[in-house]
TrEMBL record, chain A:
One of its GO terms (biological process) is protein processing. This is Hydrogenase maturation protease. Keywords: Aspartyl protease, Hydrolase, Protease. Gene3D superfamilies: HybD-like. NCBIfam families: hydrog_prot (TIGR00072). Belongs to the peptidase A31 family. The lineage of its organism: Archaea, Methanobacteriati, Methanobacteriota, Stenosarchaea group, Halobacteria. Pfam families: HycI (PF01750). The keyword Hydrolase applies. It comes from Halorhabdus utahensis (strain DSM 12940 / JCM 11049 / AX-2).
């Protein structure tokens, strides 16, 4: 832990567009955002509990099926019931419940945002679908702006 | 989701998916009682074919996030056996430490996050943040400790990067190991708190017994995790080279996951199997906890797999202390960062066999003379337990078939969770369907 803010990727790069989070975090690492740690948790959702306790602000990036066009990006507050329930990540472990646990235990006021990218394909393979691959640059910009805004 | 069965059976790995319990009874007569696993094939073995020996372990680390280091180490063992690569004692110790860390965090996660809500009568961990705040913080702290063990050795708490064929690409600093040692030594109180909590709730674990075959690794010098020979409680030691004769996979109509059997209709792997086969080799503090719970091998109550996991938490903590002390006493042999052991690949076949949180895991690869995988087979612990869960249900349900429907559901869900199956977030995926009639 070297910074006070974190961008956290969830997802499996061997499930095609489910790997969009790790792919974005890889890019951002190369760009080097000041005061931001870029973490790839893979499918280890429970580790979010530790991340929320460790950082002053957290942005989670994951493939999220919200019914948009493939590659479309959405940003939402997981604590906001008006938007979050219909925008779950693609993982079985419910990150929203984990975030609830983390914030209740630590009385945390850590602001958390989710940057979701609409997947086209989550079958087996290690390449992003063309529309999701095309969203990489926009995804990096969105993540940078979101983490700076918190 | 798509339900596909690979009837050839050799190239399917299944570690995640949905499990359902179906019970159908009328007038107390049981008609249907099935543990249905409706997973889709994951094709990891197919994805390995054509990959270089330098990437196999990275691919398989993505089979599972909770036990990614386990798959990495089993994969490396298979690769190293196939290519005739040796690993130094120091690096074997470090890998073992990473495996202990991962198993520690996995057990704590299961006990605290999945099993504990069952014992306090909650549907999920969320209400416990209010009712068992201190206990949950202990769980999270121990989970973090397991992650730190793994991270110091492998560079990450999940999907290890520093473990490579032939060794480790970057060694931890001795100061990092010392800090870990301090953390471990100061964590005994947390283990005691977890034991206290489970002791209070242990009466909630059903008193159900069914003897079965227990299969694990065994090792003459230690409670086997990272290396050893297969051991069956029915027939004794079996060479790892015969693992396919142990894990006889077969297909049942009600499951897309293959079931497995050996000497009997089913067998059990995991913490309780390890305890039953190797209890004499537990660390002293682990034995103390086993004694406190009256756990005396052999134990035939599958619900007590939870307690066996707690016993192993104490064992892993004690063994991690011992390992780090040994590493620091000997001093780490210096090497450059980004160290990659030189390997000249030759065609060969090899097997990796290790104990991971949910039981014994086998990886077997064949490589050609360019170092590319030509064939792969992975046998996952959870799949080895499906048949035993089914047999447990068939024995248990007739004894409780006149109980209220909710009670039956609760008992069966607890039974499945006691095995700690690698079905992500079982709380949400495990549906009990009463197909009709009365419970």
């Amino acid at each position: 832990m070297t910074a006070d803010r974190a961008i956290v990727a969830l997802g499996n790069p061997y499930r095609r567009d489910d790997g969009i989070g790790p792919a974005l975090v890889d890019r951002l690492r190369e760009e080097g955002l000041p005061s931001v740690d870029c973490l790839d948790l893979g499918d280890a959702g429970f580790d979010l509990v530790h991340v929320v306790a460790d950082y002053d602000a957290v942005v989670i990036v994951d493939a999220v099926d919200f019914g948009g066009d493939p590659g479309e990006i959405v940003v939402f507050d997981p604590a906001d019931p008006a938007t979050a329930p219909d925008r779950r990540g693609t993982h079985g472990t419910d990150p929203f419940e984990l975030l609830d646990v983390a914030t209740r235990l630590s009385d945390s006021t850590t602001p958390i945002r989710v940057v979701g990218v609409q997947p086209a394909e989550t079958g087996y393979g290690d390449e992003l679908s063309p529309p999701v691959a095309e969203s990489l640059s926009a995804g990096c910009r969105t993540l940078s702006e979101t983490v700076r805004s918190l | 989701m798509s339900h596909t069965i690979d009837v050839e059976g050799d190239l399917v790995t299944r570690v995640e998916g949905h499990g359902s319990i179906v019970v159908n009874a009328e007038d107390g007569e049981l008609d249907t009682c099935e543990w249905q696993v409706v997973e889709s094939p994951r094709y990891f073995e197919s994805m390995l074919v054509g990959r270089s020996f330098e990437e196999s372990h990275h691919v398989t680390s993505r089979i599972c996030a909770i036990c990614s280091v386990s798959h990495t180490i089993a994969s490396l063992q298979a690769t190293e056996a196939a290519l005739g690569v040796s690993v130094s004692e120091q690096d074997r110790r470090l890998r073992k430490l990473a495996l202990y860390g991962e198993t520690l965090q996995s057990h704590v996660l299961h006990l605290g996050y999945l099993a504990l809500p069952d014992l306090v009568g909650e549907k999920s961990v969320l209400p416990l943040a209010d009712t068992h705040e201190d206990e949950l913080e202990t769980v999270i702290d121990l989970h973090r400790l397991g992650n730190e063990l793994t991270e110091v050795v492998t560079g990450r708490s999940v999907h290890a990067q520093r473990l490579v064929p032939g060794g480790i690409s970057q060694l931890p600093e001795e100061s990092e190991l010392q800090a870990l040692l301090d953390r471990l030594v100061n964590s005994w109180d947390a283990v005691a708190e977890l034991a206290d909590l489970l002791a209070v709730l242990a009466d909630e674990l059903p008193a159900f017994e069914r003897e079965t075959e227990y299969i694990s690794l065994t090792h003459p010098e230690e409670y086997a995790f990272a290396e050893g020979t297969i051991y069956s409680s029915d027939v004794g030691e079996i060479p790892v080279s015969d693992y396919r004769d142990v894990a006889n996979e077969y297909v049942v109509e009600h499951s897309t996951a293959k079931f497995v059997r050996h000497e009997r209709e089913s067998y059990m792997v995991g913490a309780l199997a390890r305890f039953n086969n190797n209890a004499d080799q537990l660390a002293p503090r682990a034995t103390e906890i086993a004694d406190r719970f009256g756990l005396d091998a052999p134990v035939h109550n599958p619900y007590l797999n939870n307690v066996a996991q707690l016993v192993e938490v104490a064992h892993l903590l004690g063994e991690s202390v011992r390992l780090i002390e040994a590493l620091l006493d000997d001093g780490l042999t210096p090497q450059s960062n980004y160290h990659v052991p030189e390997i000249d690949p030759t065609a060969g076949q090899g097997i990796g066999a290790i104990e991971v949180p949910r039981g014994v895991l086998f990886h077997e690869y064949a490589y050609d003379d360019t170092g590319e995988v030509t064939e792969a087979n992975c046998v996952i612990p959870t799949n080895q337990n499906h048949g035993n869960i089914q047999r447990d249900m068939e024995t248990l349900v007739p004894t409780i078939v006149d109980h209220p429907e909710d009670e039956i559901k609760h008992s069966l869900e607890m039974l499945v969770r006691a095995y700690d199956p690698c079905i992500s977030c079982s709380t949400h995926y495990l549906d009990v369907e009463f197909a009709g009639g009365e419970g």
